[in-house]
Write a structure and sequence with these properties.
Distance between the termini: 43 Å
Helix content: 55-70%
Oligomer: single chain
Shape: elongated
Number of helices: 12
Order of helices and strands: HHHHHHHHEHHEEHEHE
Number of strands: 5
Strand order of the largest sheet: 2-3-1-4-5
Largest sheet: 5 strands, mixed
Length: 327
């Protein structure tokens, strides 16, 4: 089961904050005016939480799911119990949006926990407040809505994962496209600055690829590119990131790898590509450049150094690896 990205919860929480503040504020004021202090306090606590949540997401750019679980969930429980005791069936109506909302504000397991606590807290109150027939109907519908919310959210989640994978993946080779390139390199630089982890780039370019397309057609060229993508995906570690930069050029980001390790990996990839089936009697070869991250280097300069070594390898005769670090 894939988890929802944080951005999903941030957007939903912002929308819920707007709705909550607009709807609950006059409700809280009315309850204070009519002497229903406990309901007014509960509504005010929920409004205050959503206001803080909106401020945190929009201004601080942070979202705290644990705070939602530990602060909002008790406030909702208190509000619902007060509403059920004071308002009867009208109070029961507030239970329905409550059991739905947490599934769109929290990761699935925390949402289950929040709803289990809410339902376990309000079911006895519902049973004590209504006749058995009505109480049974309310409890049954709340349970069904909770289950349907899980199913609905899972469908949304699966679709989001599929769409995201399609957006960041090169459909021909199965490796990443350029969409996450800058963020990935900047993240690697941040890890290097923070923890001193060595980071290394390998830039690879197929030799004489235009000749394959011109001689054997683009179908043959696509088959070669798929083969290279398969080599990169099977020979590199899961922690590493592989990108198709465009055409016949690829880039591999090696996490926690020195230039020496990068050179060894690049040589292994070169040999593996050379063993691929060729459209004719000639071998498929690559030229590769290796560059480990240097102090105070930005992602563009880092890529440029790696790329420059590819051209150096080509000028030296192709089908070889050149390193910026002289190993």
């Amino acid at each position: 089961m894939h988890s929802q990205p944080v951005e999903f919860f941030q957007r939903i929480s912002m929308y819920l904050a707007i709705v909550c503040i607009v709807v609950l504020t006059p409700f809280a004021i009315n309850n204070f005016a009519q002497g229903r202090i406990s309901i007014g306090i509960g509504a005010s606590a929920i409004i205050s939480f959503f206001a803080f949540n909106a401020y945190s997401i929009s201004i601080l750019k942070k979202y705290y799911p644990s705070l939602t679980l530990l602060a909002l969930m008790p406030a909702v429980v208190g509000f619902l119990i007060s509403a059920l005791v004071s308002q009867g069936i009208i109070g029961a109506l507030w239970c329905y949006p409550a059991v739905i909302a947490f599934y769109f504000m929290l990761p699935e397991r925390k949402a289950w926990l929040a709803n289990a606590v809410i339902l376990a807290s309000i079911f006895p109150v519902i049973w004590a407040s209504f006749d058995p027939g009505l109480a049974t109907r309310i409890i049954a519908t709340l349970g069904i809505i909770s289950i349907l919310s899980v199913v609905f959210l899972r469908v949304i989640n699966e679709q989001q994962v599929q769409l995201r994978e399609q957006a960041i993946t090169d459909p021909l080779t199965g490796v990443l496209n350029r969409k996450l390139l800058q963020d990935s390199l900047e993240d690697a630089i941040a890890q290097n600055n923070r923890a001193g982890l060595p980071m290394t780039l390998i830039t690879l370019d197929l030799d004489y690829f235009k000749k394959i397309n011109d001689t054997h057609g683009h179908d043959a060229g696509d088959k070669v590119l798929r083969g290279v993508g398969e080599v990169l995906r099977t020979r590199c570690r899961k922690v590493d990131r592989i990108f198709r930069l465009g055409g016949e050029e690829f880039l591999v980001l090696l996490y926690n790898s020195t230039a020496k390790n990068g050179l060894g990996t690049a040589e292994d990839l070169r040999q593996a590509v050379a063993a691929l089936e060729s459209p004719d009697d000639s071998r498929i070869t690559i030229s590769a450049g290796v560059a480990s991250l240097q102090p105070d280097e930005d992602w563009q300069g880092w890529m440029k150094r790696s790329d420059s070594k590819v051209y150096e390898a080509k000028l030296a005769g192709r089908n070889q690896v050149a390193s910026c670090d002289g190993h």
